[in-house]
Amino acid sequence: MNKTILITGATSGFGKAIAETFAAAKWNCIITGRRKDRLEALADTLRIHHGIEVLPLAFDVQNRQEVFDALSNLPEAWQSVDVLVNNAGLALGRDSFENADLNDWETMIDTNVKGLLYVTKAMLPYMTDRKKGHIINLGSTAAKEVYKEGNAYCASKHAVDAISRAMRVDLLPHKIKVTAIHPGAAETEFSMVRFKGDETKAKQVYEGFEPLRAQDIADIIYYAATLPNHVCINDLVVTCLAQANSFYFQK
Ligand code: NDP
Ligand code: 8X3
Asked: Is 153 a catalytic residue?
């Protein structure tokens, strides 16, 4: 029987690459995000190319009601979720503390922190009932260090790091694995979102070095998710060759 994965933020970047990678390995996929058109298109492609089942669910992870409406009563055939990837997230703006926009801060915290908590809480009963499951959270190098003008984004990812460690302890009796993956700079739609559509600023982030690609992270997540049951990758920082940490790039 095919295994099942749920990926939040599957409409672009890491999430889309993760869906494509698991679908190619014949996992059935629950794909989520706000952009319904992209979800439907991805669902069709995955079904046609890989002959798997796909359940697209459009909702905003910031909205507690929407999250629970979408996830707490999954059709029975979809309830045996083996892997949950909490990937949906974003940075908004790169401004010093005194200039940063409060709305941006709230959106990052509501998405990266509260959204991850809501989705996990809604999905946990399916895993605790079976005493089986794997939760994979997308942190960042920004979960480990703070950088100039990274303020609330770094804080939100530090929270993902802390939540992942807390989950690992609390979910141990339920035999649920928790993996936190912390990528460095990866060229996805991330910087276009961060700089609110300013293509020049977004491109500058990756100038002069070869950043990670979404597929690199998807491959690592597939590896972590398919290890023998007794083996857990708990915490993994992954950067491109040009990056030592949040501050040091060899361009
Ligand atoms: P993208 O912008 O390419 O993808 C982000 C995904 O998150 C989209 O599918 C988007 O879907 C979804 N998303 C954002 N907000 C919401 C929301 N409120 N509700 C539901 N879905 C949402 O970025 P990446 O793939 O790069 O980012 C994925 C994760 O990886 C994020 O958590 C990010 O912080 C983290 N990360 C990224 C790094 C990078 O350099 N790219 C490095 C380290 C970590 P939609 O808009 O359709 O809702
Ligand atoms: C995304 C990478 O360096 O912008 O999490 O924080 S960075």
From this structure: yes
Question: Which residue type sits at 20?
Answer: E
- Best residue among 87, 112, 182, 246 to mutate for probing ligand 2's pocket (most ligand atoms within 8 Å of CB) is 246
Our answer on whether the CB atom of 140 is closer than 6 Å to any ligand 2 atom is: yes
Q: Which residues of 59-94 are buried (b: 16+ CB within 10 A; e: fewer)?
A: bbbbbbebbeebbeebeeebebbbbbbbbbbbbbbb
Residue 149 CA to residue 222 CA, distance in Å, equals: 33
4-238: CATH topology is: Rossmann fold (3.40.50)
- Tens digits of residue pLDDT in 21-52: 999 999 999 999 999 999 999 999 999 999 99
**Position 251 pLDDT exceeds 90:** no
Out of 147, 153, 206, 223, which one is annotated catalytic?
153
Q: What's the ipTM? A: 0.99
Q: How far apart are CA 1 and CA 19, in angstroms?
A: 18
- Assess contact for 61 and 88: CB atoms under 8 A: yes
Per-residue confidence (pLDDT) for residue 77, from 0 to 100? 97
